[in-house]
Design a protein that fits this description.
The protein has 181 residues and is mainly alpha-helical. The protein has 6 helices and no strands. 75% of the residues lie in helices and 0% in strands. InterPro entries: DUF1405.
Length: 181
Amino acid sequence: MINLLGSLYGFYWYWPQLSQTPPSRWFIVPDSPGATFLFSIWLAFLLAGADWRSPGMQVLGAVAFVSNMKYGLWTATVLPQAGFKYGWEFEFFHLTLSHLGMWVQGLLFARHYPPGPAPAALALAWMVVQDAVDYRLWMTHPTLPYQAEFGFARGVAMALSLLWGLFLLGQALGSGRRVHG
């Protein structure tokens, strides 16, 4: 429920950016609400009895876990950086705290429901594609509080894509154990 409410708020927060983006690109713009929405879908299927080891659940889970870890920590890094440099705004506090929750949930579920190597590699590839689209091709990165932070935000995004994508791939390759079932 918290993820769904957070997703709704996130889509609302992204509305000014979405309204200036061609609709064909909307799927790539709302990074954090997209991540929490995917996680909500994965969790709903799991609670409804879906086998987390099925190919579809593996791919959905891998992308949801990596997205939550990446965008959760990205926001909790980029906004405080801006706050320390330019001054704190209330929005920085509540977004930083809520995004740390995204990071924790992604990390916990990735450890307990590790995907196979192919879904993990696909999730890593998706993160790299998102960075290329967000920061190079279409410039659909999240609206930054200060445009001067673009280079920092891009560097953090790319580093976190690799870090969490490789973490998940390591989980998949190094884990002969499965916590559930």
